[in-house]
Amino acid sequence: MTGILTARPLPARSRAFDLLLAGALCVTAGFLSLAQAHFGGILAFGMLVPLIWRRTHPELVFFAVCSVAALQWLIGVDLQPGNIGLLVALYAISVYGDTRLSRIALGIGGLGVLMAVSRYWSNADWKQQVTMMVALGALVFGVWAFGERRRTRGLYVAQLEERAAQLERDRDRENKLAVSNERTRIAREIHDVVAHGLSIMIVQADGGLYAADQSPAAAKKALATIGDTGRASLTEMRKMLGLLKQDEPNELDPNQPRPQPGVSSLPELIDNVREAGLNVTYDVTGQPRDLPALLGLTAYRIVQEGLTNTLKHAGPGARTCVKLDFGREMLTVVVTDDGRGAGVAPSSDPGHGLVGMRQRASVSGGTVSAGPKAGGGYEVIAKLPYNLPTGE
């Protein structure tokens, strides 16, 4: 339970509002009470001035106002406009005060109703006394219940805000973890790509050394191959070094090399997906060309992820089309389906497939866009330039 002497933090705007409210009540109800009875007016200010701190110290304010009202009852001062401070203090403790003390305050309010009826309507008949008791009791309980409802709603909104903030933090953490995992996977694949290039360079160097004396032309060709392969591998490594922060060489097994898929492996991938029950068409436009290993791998993974998402989300009977367009400067990869697409409600867990696609495309200097199509279905478009920036 929060101590009643502990001040609640309050924005400057709220403090200013409380000051203006207490001032307005003092000017109106306070001076009206002062006009009715001199000493009673002074007591009215004693019930109105503490309202300045109604939100920072709601329990102290309520009990202070009740103490002044009890003094008013004891000395026989009639009810006056300043007694509205009791209702404001009761509302304040029900909204901002401790829950247990708020219920105690309701009980004190009920006791105050009995005391008021016994003093100020003691000469009335019993019907009038009952009527006033019910009316004052309903007023007190209504003010308290309204404050409790306000408190409950405020707590509910605060919980929703905290939950939304926690979900956002979790999503950011999951996205960062997904990017980290994807970079680790890419690092392993690049290790294989570069290792393949180095293997070619070693074989060509050994062959060139062997043929240097007997066939200078073959040696020159071997040296040219070494230069081309080295430059391509170096370009890929420079690109990756700018993105990858951590590698795990202990998990790489050089004794078990894995062949890296590329564009030429897409027909086999599509056949496997067809066997899983997905209707897929494959279309290639433009003049196919030999692609760098990294670029071919990126295109393959994007198609693979797009088909996987289609299997998961497009629904039964969906038709899918994979298109590769070999343009003059870039390769365009398009994966579309006519499944449920935009008709499906957004998922609370968007997954990490699109994160991985974009990460892979950025490594190759390209971009990926994905989203629902007009009329239904989903579309993934990747634009992958042939030439990687060399960097520093």
From TrEMBL:
Single Gene Ontology MF annotation: protein dimerization activity
Every Histidine kinase/HSP90-like ATPase domain range: 299-386
Transmembrane segments: 20-53, 60-75, 104-122, 128-146
Keyword Acyltransferase: no
Sequence ranges assigned to domain DUF7134 in this UniProt record: 15-153
Record key words, sorted: ATP-binding, Kinase, Membrane, Nucleotide-binding, Phosphoprotein, Transferase, Transmembrane, Transmembrane helix, Two-component regulatory system
InterPro entries per UniProt: DUF7134, HATPase_C_sf, HATPase_dom, Sensor_HK_TwoCompSys, Sig_transdc_His_kin_sub3_dim/P
Superkingdom as given in the UniProt entry: Bacteria
Record carries keyword Transmembrane helix: yes
The protein's name: histidine kinase
Organism the protein comes from: Kribbella jiaozuonensis
